[in-house]
Give the backbone structure.
Amino acid sequence: METGKWIRNSHFDNLWPDNPLSFWNISEKGIPVSITWSKCYFEDYLKLSDEYYYAGIKIVNEVIHAGHDNLKDDSWFLAGIFMFRQAIELVIKARIYSLIHNKREIQSILIEDKHDLSSLFLRIKKLNGISNMSYINLNWLDTYLKDLNELDSNSTVFRYPLDVKFLSKNPPKFVDVYRTSVKMDLAYSLLRSIFNDGKSFSDNLPTVLPKPKFFSIAKNGIGNCYLVHPNSFSRYYLMINGYLSVSEFLLSNHIGCESKRLYFPEMFSIRQLLELELKQLVSSEYSEIANLKIRHQSHKIYTDFWTKLNPVINNYGDSSNILNNISGFIELFQKIDNSGDFFRYPSSYSHEYHTLIRPIDPINILSCVRSITNLFEGCDAMFYDYAELEQNML
């Protein structure tokens, strides 16, 4: 399909969790995917950084070529920013692994700096890990990463609804999608070019660098991202729609060319969608939900979210079989990805590789998640109506 013309398949919108949901099922058109690593940490981090980079490229290209498409400009673009940011974090960590061979020392760095791009970049500078970069490029990259880090030091801003802390930094109301994307591409290319196989990333670097600010401001929202919406906007609406569409887009964009699949970004996006939909439900003002006082910051989709929501939903209609289907799937998904980082990194802080006991079919997993989230969106509408009724009765 022509870039910019992609549309969602209504098949996923009509799914419902009334049949058993299996994480391990291989669908009729699915191709089994096994997670394999070289067991050389810097190579595996570098490989995964490229996956997230190319996922970001595909997403922003679709957004840019779509023209004035509000959904893609305002929600897809945020998911695309995360893919680039994750690629940048991974490529810096790959460099750290290539420069330091003491696992305990690396573990200490990863625990201390976590997702702080500026601190991680300083580490490789002190280790003389970017000696082949010109002073101008190095200074630009340093300033750019500091600006990005000031906005998003914990790698949460572009995964979840914009919070008060982010909004207090006075981000632009409208963001220039193209110019902001060019700078993300440039930052990754500069970092990627320091590796031995990075020549293709250095070949097209510009001779004149743009201003090293993360966001480029746009005058209006036409063909650009309307970043700061009015308070009346549903808190999770943009993020849910972004990751919902991007999950399907990344999968459908590679059918027939399995060698170029971006499995980890695809699976991260699917899991992120499920977490966002659960958080949308727990943010309801309906008294039966609000009184549960569920901690939104958690990433434990089963123990902290679903086990508490399930009894409330079960009060409305005879749906025990459906809810049991959902429970088993979410419980297993949490066992595999307890904190939302399994598909973001090759390994844990303790250097334990992320692996699965069996092959998976991402198309099947997307189908299962979409059937669950379709039900969740119906529940969310119901809880919204009940909350309105409660307010009117005061």
Notes: The CA atoms of residues 180 and 216 lie 5 Å apart. DSSP finds 15 helices and two strands in the chain. The first helix runs from residue 10 to 13.
